[in-house]
Write the structure tokens for this entry.
Amino acid sequence: MANEIDWNGFSKKTLTEDILRGLSDVVNWHYVFQYSPLSEAFIEEYATEEDWPIISHFQKLSDPFMQKHEEDLE
């Protein structure tokens, strides 16, 4: 992801951010990181430096979703 490739006017970074933004409304990222192979232990073991900005972005997206979900449950 560090290397931006122009693909019909889009870069991988832009596409990734757009996809993440769209998914944030339907995906419980907190759950994904807590209960999937994307757990912190897995990430720390296998993630490369290039992966960290994307992982960080996923984690940031999880917080607003969790807050909204918790409010809906109350």
Summary: The two ends are 39 Å apart (CA to CA). The chain has a mean pLDDT of 64.
